[in-house]
Amino acid sequence: MDVAVVIPVFNQAHYTRNCLDTLRAAGVAENSVLVVDNGSTDDTAACLAARPLVRVIRNDTNRGCGGAWNQGTQAGSATWTVLLNNDVLIPQGWLEGLRAFAEDEGFDVASPAICNGVKVDYDFPAYARQFMSRMQRVKRVGTASGVCFMVHERVFKAVGFFDEDRRLGGYEDDEFFRRCRQAGFRLGRTGRSFLHHFGSVTQKAMKADMRQPNASLGDREYYRQKYGLTWLKRRRARMTWGLQCARWRLSERWRYGCTLVSHREGGKFIWE
Fold it and tell me: Torsions phi, psi of 7, nearest 5?
């Protein structure tokens, strides 16, 4: 298989249903989609049973994001694996654009442009089509998003799979991207691909299940100590990242009138 799409889920069946519907409408083969159900207690099982071509791994308990990603990634032998949140909407051309960007420009890990927003109060299909046409030459090098990222099999062979340590809850993507950069792999975000992200639905569901809505899913101090991220290093990294994002935002807005990362608020796009 050339491309596999892995979607970890925990409850929130209506988001999973919408995600799978838009994947199918976008022409993504259902037998290339693998959903890892991390012990859902709602009607997720029924939702998935209604799609017999979609492959499903069912966990009795919640193994966390890293564990679910590993299960899905290792269940097949795809050249490219897309790790995708369930709280997203997918337009036509999403997968084709993402793969073309990675293969044409030599990226090992690739993410699409993203609009974050709790509501879709705009014509999503039309906007996505226009956006991908306008922004097809735009990229951000050195960055990727845990909401959706496509990884070539050579990356897993070199740096290993995802860290399943539950102390890293919420930081699994950042930790993996860090190892990729350290190994010299290229990460990038492209305007050739786009999606809408409703925002942290799975994490909110997990916190609700913990009955601690303000809890952290991971141990931030553990992650910092693991990589020697002192206060000074974190401050420098935040400053560097802030300046880079500002350069991207100003350049993209000046040339195209929009940016690769945005959120929808009050009926308007806020460019990031």
Answer: -125, 105
